[in-house]
Automatic annotation (TrEMBL):
Record-linked InterPro entries: Glu/Gly-bd, Insect_Ionotropic_Sensory_Rcpt, Iontro_rcpt_C
Listed name of the protein: Ionotropic glutamate receptor L-glutamate and glycine-binding domain-containing protein
Organism: Scylla olivacea (Orange mud crab)
Cell location: Cell membrane
SUPFAM superfamilies linked to this entry: Periplasmic binding protein-like II
Domain Ionotropic glutamate receptor L-glutamate and glycine-binding: residue ranges: 8-61
Amino acid sequence: MKVTQEVPGGPPHFQGPMMDVLLSLARTMNFTFVLERSPDGSWGTPLPNGTVTGLVGMVHRQEVDLALGPFALTSGRAIVVDFAAPLFSDAPQLMGGRGRPEVDPWGFMLLPFAPSVWATTLCSMGIWVLAAVMLLTTPLKNRQGVREALRSLWQTVVSFVFLYCGVLFQQGLEASRTSRERRWVGRLVVIGWTVTAMVLAWSYMGGLTSLVAVRHVPQPFQTLAALGDHPSVLLMVAKNSAESRLLQTGGPVVLRGLEKVREGKRLRMVSRRYHNVYLPMANGEPWVVVVEAYEAAAVAEHHFALTGRCDYYTSREIIVSYPHSIILQKNSPLLRAVNARLQALTQGGLYLHWLQTALPNSSICRHSPSTVTVQDTLSLANLWGVFSVLAGGLGASLLAFVCELASSTRTDAAD
């Protein structure tokens, strides 16, 4: 529900789908109402000491006849108040701030090709090597022993593997142990692989050039287990809410990975207000909020209306689903009449219509991409991975060259 003031200094004006529900109930049931707020500003839940907090406590103590909410139906709340017919079902999930676009310096290695293309390339190279071994090598002599034959075959296979890898990496190598009678067949085999390798190399270079302009938006916390692996990140939850009770008392089956958060005392009970919790999170503060999907959509819509940006994301993992509805006093005579009217509102699609009207921009940021394309100049900031691989390759080749010289020197000394 949104609270505004049509006249500065005047009485507050309430808007939102739940206010529309209340007005519909008042009109069809012919009653007037006075709006009250809970002293602690929370939804409310029964505590272990027997007290009931927030709006749930006001209804339980019969200070008010009903509370709009909508409230998540939990076993503890159902003991002290009555729930009307459910308006919708919603599930808490993690909501975090989307990071700023970052360069993936290692993305150039594998991203230009899909995994199926990489697998096909390796399989085809193996087939070409096998064909080369069968068509280009000289038949082994009968007088050779088994050990010598296997050694000769191994050297042949290795030489052809280096040959075809060199063609793929656009380097020149020479094959040995070829049969003069099969020279033309050998040329056809090498030409076929060369054409295939050239097409792959050109496609790879084109894809690599395109990926230089790609930025990745980090969305690291998709599960509670992932949150447990980051000891500097806090977990925020609304105080005296169904989610706070669940996170405090839920077992390891429901809350996988939350043990590390509890042990590190990173679970914080707060009032989920935009300027105190959500806006700092969008600006980079290291915390994540447990929030229902509808509230997450409302926060994202409000933030987009103010800034024009989609700075939040929600996790793929949901914790548990709750029905949500209005609460009334225990054994209230209004319950049957309220249930009949709420069922008519939901079955007729009015509540969903009011919800969509209240959040016109909620779908804009619902599926924000995790990668974006930018125009930028090449620099070490986005190419340091390329130079790292180049330096590693040069170092490995230098080491192989030194080992080869040492092995050659030792062989000459032995002779």
